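User: I'm designing a mutation panel for Gamma-glutamylcyclotransferase and want to avoid disrupting the core. Could you give me a predicted structure to guide residue selection? Please restate the sequence first so the numbering is unambiguous.

Assistant: Good idea. Sequence first, for numbering, then the predicted C-alpha cells:
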Amino acid sequence: MTLPFFVYGTLRPGEVNHALFLRGRTLREEPGRLPGAVLYEGPGYPYAVEEPGGVVDGELVTALPEAYPGLLAELDRLEEYVPGDPRSLYERVAREVVRTADGRAVRAWVYVAAPAVAARLRARGTPIRSGNWRG
C-alpha cells in the first residue's frame, strides 16, 4: 500500500533526518495533524502514543513514486521498526491525518510508539502538551 508519511519529529522539514532521508525525494510536504495521539518526550526525538483526545502536529510527506520503495525501507530502519518484533521502538500504522490547509482527512503511514514503549511512556513519560515537538 503506497501512502504518504506523517512525520512529527526529526523527519520534519528543517530537522536533521529530513535532510538525510527526505530532501530531494518528496513530491509534496504539507502541514497536518494526527488526531487520537499524544506526543511524548524521547531521548532526542519524540514518540506519538495513540490516546483518545490528543492531537499531534507535523507534516504529511508524499514521496516521489520512484523513491517510495527505498524510502519506506530506510524509514523502517531509522525508526527501528521490524514487523512482528516485540523489541521494535515504533510501529508503522496507517491512520487518518487531517491536512491543515483544507481539513481533508488523508490516510498516511505514521510511526507510533510500539506497545511496550507506549506503556512505559503512559506510566512515566513526559507528554508534550502542545502536540508540537518544536514547541
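For picking mutation sites, this is relevant: Helices lie at 16-22, 68-78, 115-124. The first strand starts at residue 5 and ends at 7.
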